[in-house]
Amino acid sequence: MNNWELLMQGFSVAFTFSNAMAAFIGALLGIVVGAMPGIGAAAGVSMLLPMTFKMNPTAGIIMLAGIYYGNMYGGAYSATLLNIPGDTPAVVTALDGYQLTLKGKAGKSLATGNYASFIGGSIGIVFLTIFGPLLAEIGLKFGPAEVAALIFLALTSIGWLLGDDPVKGLVAACLGILLSTIGIDGASGNARYNFGSLNLIGGITFVPLVIGMFGFSQVLEMISDSKEFKVDGVKKLSIRESMLSWAEFKEIFWPSVRSGVLGNFIGFLPGAGATTGSFLAYILEKRIGKKRHTLGTGEITGVAVSEAANNAGAVGSFAPLLSLGIPGSSTSAVLLGGLMMWGLRPGPLLFESNPDFVWGLISSMYFGNILCLVAGMAVLPFLVSFLKISKRVMIPIIMVICLVGSYAVGNSIFDMGVMVVAGVVAFYLKKQAFPSSPVLLAFVLAPRLEVSMRQALSISQGSLWVFFEKPISAVILICTFALLLFPVIQKLIAFSKARKN
Amino acid sequence: MELAINLIIFLLAGYWCQQGLMVYSFWNKNQPGSGFIPVIFSVILMAFTLMLILKEIRKILKNRSHETRQATVLSLSDLRPLLPVVYTLAAIVVFRFAGVVVSMFLTSFVWLLCISKVRLAKSLIISVILTLMVYLIFVMWLRIPFPRSIFGF
Predict the structure, then answer these.
(1) How far apart are CA A282 and CA A285, in angstroms?
(2) Which of A57, A361, B39, B122 has the smallest set of CB atoms within 10 Å of its CB?
(3) Of A168, A400, A429, the CB nearest to B134
(4) Does the keyword Glycoprotein apply (chain B) (predicted)?
(5) Residue B45 belongs to domain spanning
(6) ipTM value of the model?
(7) Residue ranges of chain A with per-residue pLDDT less than 70
(8) Is residue B37 located within the same domain as residue B101?
(9) Is residue B117 in some structural domain?
């Protein structure tokens, strides 16, 4: 069957009542969670992950995917109305979005965000439909050496790209790898680093860890920053006043398309994700856009490029996740953990062994994206009162969800303790500018890295040349080393320039 | 604070490395052992944290007096987030003995009323709705075998 037929088959899966409902609920929950300032997609998906345990894997992942891209829509709302991005990708949206709010055009800004999100999301889904299977075909040619090299590159770029300091990003990635070594060694079957605890023989359970790192740490952050959110300058929003005129729509259309393509490409790269995509799209618009001189002063184009890029990036991160089993962002790492819990193994074979699942998910995105646009416009009149929900009320709600969710995976009180410890550690690491996403991504990827690396070395009788003999792994490793050495070279150039001056 | 965190990570990586070399074997019969990956990445981690430690020490030495004053202020505010940690640990103990319904109601209600200073009626309404949601989703729908109280829920 070709892609088109598989996609049509996927639609028949996506349009069953349970899957359509899952997409609808996911999109709605995503918008709501995304609009909550500071919670973010990874926290939203991880806290809601336990709710999908009872569902079949397809419905479960459709719902989680809906939460993810719904979150990208919702992130723009608090960025526009409060100047506090609901998630990091919406940081750029706040630049022009909040200025528009101050000018009394909050409705226009939010509607622009919705339209641009739809355009970016649609571009991302079309590209995923075309390039996802192609990437999987390339992935089929990978042996253990190539897989190990690819994961090594992913871990390096994740550590390098996330956070302000590459060294801290790499420290976080290494920490995630060490955490993943707790429990049974996948290659030999021996227990290790369990500190004599029976609870740790199976390793650290993924869901409590992720809920703690992204959900519970959020509670601690809210406590440490007691400032309340305030919706200034907007009393009421109506759909009619928010609608864009034809001229305004024309103004945002091409920049949104351009940013969508760029954001989607960035989303394909591990670690770069939606945030980098929206930043680069904004920079590109600042260079070549018609409104480049007034960008940042409250232009709907500024909101459009950021939102289109972050939505396209979010969908783009599904391509390496589904085709190679490599998550592109922390949220897709949570999704990967969810897939593994259901016994699915994302990677090149997933397209062949579970076509119903993969194409059902991709098809649901077309439907979910339309749902998000409709729901995004429908919630506009209620947004102002919704964003007035106080932090003081949100804290115990998140706390309860974290507690119940972390217990629900393994019915274990120990997991609740893991959640609390993970939250505290993530909070203090974040406070010292250590990004927490690389910890999670490395935790998810490291077991595969270890198995592939050891398989490759066993085949080659312990010779490290196995990683350089094959062209694919050699090229990947050269890229990895270049990435690792780049900060050093940069510093050397700066040093020599300073000496010259 | 940063120095302490880096030091803890450094020591942790050292422990991982020592265990990987001494207990789980790094290399065995021309093949990597269980300690192979832990040793490689713990060594990398030690190198990176050492870099950060040295950087931090240099920074502290550079502005000694200023840093000391700042560190005292920071240490007090750093302890504030521990309040929900202690509270959550207490909630877990209550959860173990009083069951999910009672504990989750108390967790939300006591926090809203005593710490968030939300009005009694509003605290009660939010807590009841939240507990009901937890009960419907996790107990009724997902059928998670939560600990139960003497009342049977």
Answers:
(1) 5
(2) B122
(3) A400
(4) no
(5) 2-79
(6) 0.90
(7) 1, 38, 86, 159-164, 226-235, 270-273, 487
(8) no
(9) yes
